[in-house]
Every structure is written in C-alpha cells, then in structure tokens.
Design brief:
The structure is a homodimer.
Chain A (H helix, E strand, L loop, with lengths): L3 E7 L6 E7 L2 E5 L1 E6 L9 H7 L4 E3 L1 H6 L3 H6 L3 H5 L5 E3 L3 H6 L5 E2 L4 E4 L6 E4 L1 H11 L3 E3 L11 H21 L6 E6 L5 H13 L5 E3 L8 H11 L9 E3 L5 H9 L4 E4 L1 H7 L2 E4 L2 E4 L19 H5 L2 H9 L3 H27 L3 H11 L5
Parallel strand pairs in A: 4-5, 4-14, 5-6, 6-10, 10-11, 11-12, 12-13, 13-14
Antiparallel strand pairs in A: 1-2, 2-3, 7-8, 8-9, 15-16
Helix pairs in contact in A: 6-7, 7-8, 10-14, 10-15, 11-14, 13-14, 14-15
C-alpha cells in the first residue's frame, strides 16, 4: 500500500479535519501546504533549509523535469528524491496544467496533447500513458492523473467535454500506472459548474483513487466563486481520502479552503512573490523593495521567529533586492515559506483545540489579502 | 589600539609566516583569504554560512556601498557589521580601484577623482578625505588609504607620478582618519617597476601605518612578474606589520604569495567563478555547466567535506546551473569558498609543522591553474 490516510479529528463546526498521510518517504500532517520545487529545487532553498522550516512534502513539476534535465537522467540518479537530496515525501503533478498554461502551439486530441517546449520550441507529445511513464521515472510518493485544465471563463459545453475527456484519461492513467510505491490521485474538473464538478467527482470515485485533486480552480475566477464550488463539491468526495486543492496558496485561501474540508494545497505564489520583493505578513503583503523601507531597521514582521526576521532588517533586505543580490530573494523566500508553514501549523493546532472557526475569523479579519 | 599583529612562527625556508591579527571585532589567523562582500553581502551567502565555512574576515567595497545603499544608511544602521549581520572583522577598500576599473569618465587631479556612477551616470567626487569619511561611516575594522591604481601595462613615467600621488594621498588619508577603533593601511604602488615599489614602500613606512596593502598587481601582468615584484618588495616591508596582497585569490597565487611573505589576500574570483558554473578542485577548475557532467553522479570532488560535495552530485549542480536556479550558484559558491578557506587552513598547518615548502610543491604540481 503506497499511501495510508487517516482523519484523526474533525472540526465539527466546519468541514475542516486533521489528518495523517503516510507515504513511502514518511508522514505528512494535514492540512498541509506544499512548496513547489518546479525544476527539482524549491527556488533559492536547500533541502535542509526546507526541513528546518518544518516542510514535510514538496511538489515537483513533470513538464519542467521532462524537458530539463530529462526524466531519464532523474531516473538514472535514482529518482527525484535522490537527485535533489530531499528525503521526505514528494508529489508530482501530471504536466497537464503546464502544457495548457506554458507551452505554445498545443493541439489536444483524444490521444493526448501535442505541444512545443517553451525552452527551445521543440515538439513533444503528452498522453496519459506518457505522463505516467515520466512520473514513474521521477518516483514521487504521490503522482497525479493527466487532465485537461480549461481556462476561466470557459463555456459550459467546452467544460463538459473537457471534464469527460479528463475522466477517460484518468481511466487510462490508472491502467498505465504500475509502481506500487506511488499513490495515483485523480483530478476533479468541471470549472465553476457545480453539476459538472459533482459528475466529475462521481466518475473518478468509480475508479477508486487513493486521493482526489481539485483542479481548474484559482485560474482567474473570483475567490467567492471558488469557495462556492468547494462548498458544493467537497461533501461529494469520500471522507476517508485526502482532498488536494491544486495551485492555491495565498493565506486567506488556505484558511478558507481548510474550513471547506481541503487537506492539501500547493502554489508557486509565496516563493514567486518573494522573488519579486514582496513579503507576507499577518496584515497583508509588504512591498519590501519600495523606498519607504530604505531606512526601516525593523524586521519584516515584529515577533516573527523566522531566520530572516531574527537576523535582518527591512532596510538591509530592501538594499539586497534593489541591488539584485541573491541573498535578498533567499531571505524573502525563507520568510514567506516560514509564514505559510507556521500558518498551517497554527491551523492544525486550532482544529486540535476545537478553535478553528475563532482562529479563522481573527486571522481573516487581520489579513488584508493579496495585492 | 585598533589593531594588534603578532607573528607567531616563521617558515625559515621561505618568507612565509603564521600570524594573529587582533581587531575590534575579533581575531584573524594569518595567512588568510578574505571573501569579498561587494554590496554588503558575499554573493549568495548568509553571514552564518560564512561562519560555518570558518571565514574570519570579509571585505566590503566603499565605491559600491557609497552608491548603494549609501554610506549614511549604513551608518544609520549602526555600521556595516550591524547592517549586514556579520559579527566578525571587516576590511573595506578605499574605492580607488573601483573608480579606476568600473566608473566611466573619470578625471584625476591632485585633489581627487571625479567620476560617473556605473549605475545611473550621476557625477561624484572621491578624495582621500572623502574616502576616509565614507569608510568611517561604514565602520570596518581595517580600512585602506585612497590610492591611484595604474593599469598594466603603463609606462614608467606615468607609474612614477601615480606612485607619488598615492603617497601624497596616503598622507592626507592619515590626517583625515580619526576613528580609533579602525586601523588604516597604506597601499604600496609602483606597478611592475621594482625600484618604484621600493620607493613607495619607504615613503609609506615613513607614515608608519599599522599594515601595508600591495596594490596594482594581478591587473593583467604575467604571474611570474607578480612573483618577482613580491620577491623584491616584501623584504623591504616591516616584519611586524601585516602585508596584504590586494585582489589576488587563485589557489596557485595564494600558495606562491604566502611563500613570499604575504599575510592577507582578497579576490572576487572564487565567488565570481562559481556564478559562472566553474568549480575549483585540487586538479584545477571544472566547468560543471558543461554537457559531460549531465550524467555524472559523483560529487564535485571526491573526499571534499563541504556541504555541496557531501550532499549533491555534479549532474544535479549542472542541471541547476543550466536551469538558472539560484541553488546552483549557491552550491558552487559554497564549494569554492570552502576550497579556499580549507587551503589557507592547510597552509597554516603546514607552516606550523615546518612543512610548507613540501606542501606547496605538492599542491602546485597537482593544480592545473586557472583556465
């Protein structure tokens, strides 16, 4: 059995729950935020620094690793864990989202997707079987079915056909996947159409996956609409399986997602924001590269226990970012990832203490949201 | 007394010696290599990582810090140590070398140098007094006199006039410098003309500096010529004062410099090389970004105890560098700085064990040199 998942406590006053995900490379406490390591590295961070932050699982990108360095090189190294020196669990996505969002000139057919590399324009073809073969090479603990991810907005007919294709591809993924040390998750699609979401969930549950991704959200729709879809969809999903809301990672969305019964999240947002000189605080995001911080010798956030806030001032970090110094984006990345891992730890503690609704209300009232 | 220097042992079979430099912020064992932190950061590294490598002193650049963030901001932060979170000794250069090598449209007069910023083209003026004022703001433990650094090749008349100007500027620096917790070093100039070097040394020694920089070498002349200048010059310098060969840092030059009686070195070379995907090994430099390393799962150097070699393969580092991932240049920088700090530790151990000439012979025979 590649994956065990057990819910240890339910909030009762919301759909939130505490869980424990046992994988081939160790245990993950849920709800969890997974930092993204697109190209076999969570940008700017060593694996040991991630461990120090308390990160228990990271994400890798099939599309990027297939193009560079090539999944056969990762396989030769002994898999992605070995290649990048990360001993804890890894989840890889299917490549679907990247093919649809990054690669130019893609052509979708029943068989799969032809696309050109965003690096050199070369032609490639991803099918459900190919995505499984690459992900088996990479050797993550949790892998994702190859899906079509429609844009927002998209009309109902398109989304319906896309959802049906995603179900057929999920069947083919299940048939092609043979590694017993990996858990394959299905991905629920259906855009913002609640009935299509429910159909998608039921079709995938027939295939009995050990976990379910919720794809195609946070792609441009208003947050309220995303929350409504979750309100409607999550009760349809099996209680004893992990639910993974893909591509969502701003602090308010994490809190709202947990309240709606989501167990896992990932997003490039906190690390990308950091590289643009934006830091997350409990009162919202701070554009640390701006002039007002040039003579501000306070830490990013008073009381924050992260390495950055314990050792460096806003003025110093601002200087580093303005001067294009790597240490600047290292320090903002550490702070942002610490913020999110701490937030998830606080959320889990609040569920354990039967205080999640109160915690959520207070946090959301203080947090000014994403700029 | 801002600085104490004591020679604890002489090699006897060469001019090498072991020393101990006591500064306001702690002790430095010599011979020492000082990594360069141009913009208040040794590129890619945290101060704590430098400490872990055993780095005892770093260099800061007056020219860069004056332009960005501005020395008044560093002073407001409490000085460079406080601003960048580095608790150990710092040496700042005078800005002279950068004005002559980086800034466009410079005009030299008896009074000083007018130049334009390489960042925004704005006009600035450095004089000996201005350099002292900036370096007093920055608050390093050791600061350098403002000198003119002639290019190579340069004709004898030019170098002679330049050397005389440097001496007059050194007098003005000494008069302008008032911080008692800082030691001001003079800088010997004179190009590759041995008699001018000796004159420069004697003129500066009249001013009785607590240490002497040797400037204007490693600026394009053959290495053998640099060694000859050192052979001739060093015996003229006081035995009880530290000698600092400026801008020199390739492994073979460090060994050759120590043999000739140099106590201190600095260079951007090991960190810059790292950012270009080149790593230093005992057999020479390795272009790790090249294709042959794509499937090479060995460490950079077998037996190396650095964090990089203990945890990551050449193939992984090559992938990171090719993919423009920050972690790639972090790992190569760690390795290169570890290499040089270890080399200096080995050199000091060899002097202590009366084995330096043997150590040097073996090291230089194996080291293929700079590409």
């Amino acid at each position: 059995m590649a994956l065990k998942f057990a819910v240890s406590k339910e909030c009762g006053r919301s759909r939130a729950r505490l869980g424990r995900l046992e994988t081939t490379h160790g245990v993950v406490e849920t709800p969890v935020f997974m930092p993204v390591g697109t190209q076999a590295t969570v940008k700017t961070m060593t694996p040991h620094e991630l461990e120090e932050l308390g990160v228990e699982i990271i994400l890798g990108n099939t599309y990027h690793l297939y193009l560079r360095p090539g999944s056969e090189i990762v396989a030769e190294a002994g898999g992605l864990h070995q290649f990048m020196g990360w001993r804890r669990p890894i989840l890889t996505d299917s490549g679907g989202f990247q093919v649809f969002s990054l690669a130019p000139l893609r052509t979708i057919s029943e068989e799969g997707v032809e696309f050109r590399s965003h690096l050199d324009g070369s032609k490639h073809f991803f099918s459900p079987e190919k995505s499984m073969a690459i992900q088996m090479d990479l050797g993550a603990d949790i892998i994702m079915a190859f899906d079509e991810c429609p844009p927002y907005p998209a009309d109902r007919d398109y989304v319906k056909r896309s959802k049906e294709l995603t179900t057929r591809w999920a069947q083919r993924c299940k048939a092609a996947h043979t590694r017993e040390d990996q858990a394959l998750f299905g991905i629920v699609q259906g855009g913002v159409y609640k009935d299509l979401r429910r159909e998608s969930a039921l079709e995938l549950m027939d295939l009995d996956f050990p976990g379910y991704g919720i794809g195609g959200l946070s792609v441009g729709e208003p947050k309220e609409l995303m929350y409504e879809v979750l309100d409607d969809l999550v009760p349809e999903l099996p209680k004893d399986k992990p639910r993974y809301l893909m591509g969502v990672g701003s602090p308010d969305c994490l809190v709202e997602g947990v309240l709606r019964g989501v167990d896992m999240f990932d997003c490039v947002w906190p690390t990308r924001l950091a590289r643009h000189g934006m830091v997350i605080t409990r009162r919202g995001n701070l554009p640390i590269r701006n002039l007002p911080y040039a003579r501000d010798f306070a830490p990013i956030e008073e009381g924050c226990q992260c390495y950055t806030c314990q050792n460096f001032s806003r003025a110093y970090i601002r200087h580093l970012i303005k001067a294009n110094e790597v240490l600047g984006i290292r320090l903002t990345t550490i702070h942002n990832l610490f913020f999110l891992t701490s937030l998830m730890r606080d959320i889990r503690a609040a569920i354990a203490a039967d205080m999640l609704p109160e915690f959520a209300r207070e946090f959301l009232a203080g947090f000014a949201g994403e700029k």
